[in-house]
Amino acid sequence: MGYREINSSQNEYIKELGKLKHNKIRHAKQLALIEGLHLISSAYDNNLLVEILVTQDNLHLVNQYQNVNIIIVTNQIIKKLSTSVTSQPILGIINLAKYFDHQKIDYHHNALILENIQDPGNLGTLLRTSLGFNFPNIFLVHNGVDLFNDKVIRASQGALFYLNIHVISHPVSEFLTQLKKEHYQIISTNLSDNSTFLETTTFDPDQKYAVCLGNEGSGLSPIILDNSDLNVKIKINAQLDSLNVAQAGTILMYEINKQQKGD
Q1: Residues 160-191: pLDDT tens digits?
Q2: Please, what sign has the CA dihedral across residues 247, 252, 255, 257?
């Protein structure tokens, strides 16, 4: 296998790759950067990996990847393109157009609806736990942090490559109506008088659930709350005002999965 080498961080191609740190450029070019062997392996398994940038000392770690361009670069170039403090000397480029083309809604399984989640760590964590607790369908509503923000990708630990993720562009009311036609029960999370404690809620093993989680500051929008079939809250220590959205979502998905799987 032949390799291309780039030794200067001022190389024009390296400068173009550096622009992928910005959301608008990522989506204009339909490419994104990922870091580390674990994410590269996950992207490769899903036929999304286009290119690998690796230092000479670590070339042996990527020789198994077929039909992928490999560029040997310097540590200085890796540091320039990396966004993590302790970067691994291996970067990958993935094809976003192919990623979204592959997304299929699986109406036979539970779903997670995320409305305007702003913190990349929260979004990445929710993607990771949704895969772990069998919520393979993810719907992103009303913008929020970019799915391919580097912190989202790292926090997800590659889970986003194994989930069905869709950005909802049509009216939310139409989307919720469609889910109900597919026999989903819509669950919202809101601290109100009509909320049911999660600890006293029973989840049917044969029912499909769509769990809705809202913005860190403002919560869920009225349209989602009004269309919910069930509103739940988690009992916590009175000295604590609330859990953050990733913590609450993880607990809720865990409880539903536990009851449905009988574990």
Answers
A1: 999 999 999 888 999 999 999 999 999 998 76
A2: negative
Q: Average model confidence (pLDDT) for the chain? A: 92
For the record, the structure tokens of 160 come out as 């986003």
Q: Is the pTM of this model over 0.90?
A: yes
Closest C-alpha among 227, 96, 107, 100 to residue 169: 100
Termini Cα distance of the chain: 48
Distance CA 67, CA 58 (A): 18
Pick the more confident residue, 72 or 142. 72
CB crowding 10-26: b at 16 or more within 10 Å, else e: eeeebeebeebeeeeeb
